[in-house]
Design brief:
The complex is a heterodimer of chains A (112) and B (112). In chain A, strands 1-9-8-3-4 form a five-stranded mixed β-sheet, with no helix packed on it. Chain A has a four-stranded antiparallel β-sheet with strand order 2-7-6-5, with no helix packed on it. Chain A is 0% helix and 45% strand. Chain A has strands at 9-13, 18-23, 32-38, 45-50, 55-56, 61-64, 70-75, 84-91, 106-111. Chain A is mostly beta strands. Chain A contains no helices and nine strands. By secondary structure, chain B is mainly β. In chain B, 0% of the residues lie in helices and 54% in strands. Chain B contains no helices and eleven strands. Chain B starts with a strand and ends with a strand. The mean pLDDT of chain B is 94. Classes of the chains: A mainly beta (112), B mainly beta (112).
């Protein structure tokens, strides 16, 4: 499985933008980049995913480097409810059907 | 629409017993994956089913098994329970590879 590297933790203030980085230097051409987050005592929650182009949805934006070896999850205005563990995951079809390989993730702390 | 439903939410079993956990996916989703989450190992992939067929399996012993029914509902079974099987078991459903996965709240299994 292709690996991802994320900082262990990050902090932000409420109402400010947050940029969560992820390195995936061994990504293959068919790997999708997924972001999930897990709030305390809950199952992981889908945030966003993309393949090559930058993506936006109501929760966040995903900026993908041109060489696809890194990506950044952008929360435009952090709220206290965004405090969670954020996971950057690569997945593809073939032998990885349905498999999301979760790393340690980034613990995001949001200060009021 | 209704989310992924896992039952039961909490379970206490004795070493050596077996247990069956249930997962009802989102309507229309044919892919169901199972994960084990522990403080030490994090989230680990168990297996994935699509249209009643197991397409992928993680590195878990044969005591862990699963199945999927024609209505896409899935069950996982753990036989001869060990103390180390105590964990949060999460189920996720999706349309297929490349689509976002939706997780249930999980079943908290405690083996005593």
């Amino acid at each position: 499985d292709a690996k991802t590297t994320q900082p262990n933790s990050m902090e932000s203030n409420e109402e400010e933008p947050v940029h969560l980085p992820c390195n995936h230097s061994t990504i293959s051409g068919t790997d999708y980049i997924h972001w999930y987050r897990q709030l305390p005592s809950q199952g992981p929650e889908y945030v966003i995913h993309g393949l090559t182009s930058n993506v936006n949805n109501r929760m966040a934006s995903l900026a993908i480097a041109e060489d696809r070896k890194s990506s950044t999850l952008i929360l435009h205005r952090a709220t206290l409810r965004d405090a969670a563990v954020y996971y950057c995951i690569l997945s593809t079809g073939g032998t990885s059907y349905g498999k999301l390989t979760f790393g340690q993730g980034t613990i995001l702390t949001v200060h009021p | 629409k209704a989310g992924v439903t896992q039952t039961p939410r909490y379970l206490i079993k004795t070493r050596g017993q077996q247990v069956t956990l249930s997962c009802s996916p989102i309507s229309g989703h044919r892919s169901v994956s199972w994960y084990q989450q522990t403080p030490g190992q994090g989230l680990q992939f168990l297996f994935e089913y699509f249209s009643e067929t197991q397409r992928n399996k993680g590195n878990f012993p044969g005591r862990f098994s699963g199945r999927q029914f024609s209505n896409s509902r899935s069950e996982m079974n753990v036989s001869t329970l060990e103390l180390g099987d105590s964990a949060l078991y999460l189920c996720a459903s999706s349309l297929d590879v490349g689509f976002e996965a939706f997780f249930g709240q999980g079943t908290r299994l405690t083996v005593v």
